[in-house]
Write a structure and sequence with these properties.
Length: 257
Amino acid sequence: MSLLIVDRLSKNYSKSIRALDNISFCSTEGECIGIVGESGSGKSTLARVLLGLEPYKEGNITFDGKPIAPKNRTLLREYRKNVQMIFQDTTSTLNPKLPIWKSLLEPLSNFKEISPSYLGKEGSSEREIAEVLLEMVGLDKHMVDRYPGELSGGQKQRVSIARAISIEPSLLVCDEPTASLDVTVQVQILHLLKELQKKNNMTILFISHDIRAVTFLCEKVIVLKNGSIVDQFGLEELYHRERHPYTKALIKAAEID
Ligand SMILES: Nc1ncnc2c1ncn2[C@@H]1O[C@H](COP(=O)(O)OP(=O)(O)OP(=O)(O)O)[C@@H](O)[C@H]1O
Ligand SMILES: [Mg+2]
């Protein structure tokens, strides 16, 4: 069964700005879908709409059989227990004034009813939970007392990932999570996401302008251009002749063919 169904979704910011135009796709549990497109193609808008952070008027979004409508607060709260997002810019996730352990625990304190499988039966202290989360993303547990300003870009992104997976979401939306990192750190973060996805059977929507990152991580690729899906295919069809000319141009520019 499909976990997420996006059906003919459109979004206008104003009469002249149609950020999303008739978007349809679906994803099953544990699948990784890449959304690739140039700047301004509507990738972040799609992410925000999917998270219920931005209203939409046309089309439908269904998650686990239930509609996602930003106005229905009860349904939205239930949905947020299952969906997390990682942004390019960690400053929108990590409050610079809070020590890492406090930032890490925010999602769990919003949803006290969640008891994650990575914690033992006996109660753990908040710091212990934060330490476990840091270790899950390959960071030293002693970092719990540091502040975001004392971490590197890659370390901050790992903390954001730990924070996002703390509630064991079934859907993780990543909006250009590696765009501000240098190439070697980008690769490490991609490997980490892949490993966590397999371990937790998460569905990942991975948004990027970099088709190489998308093809490394994802088995399905959606190509956005000016708010529309121009191409949608399984990874094994990447080099097929019927790829859209825009997809071919992206592949050529990335020199992966
Ligand atoms: N809050 C807003 N109000 C008005 N227009 C907006 C708003 N946010 C985005 N847009 C417009 O919607 C279109 C899609 O923007 P979006 O941020 O979704 O693109 P993107 O693919 O994420 O680009 P980038 O790769 O640069 O992050 C653009 O034309 C943008 O100018
Ligand atoms: Mg964007």
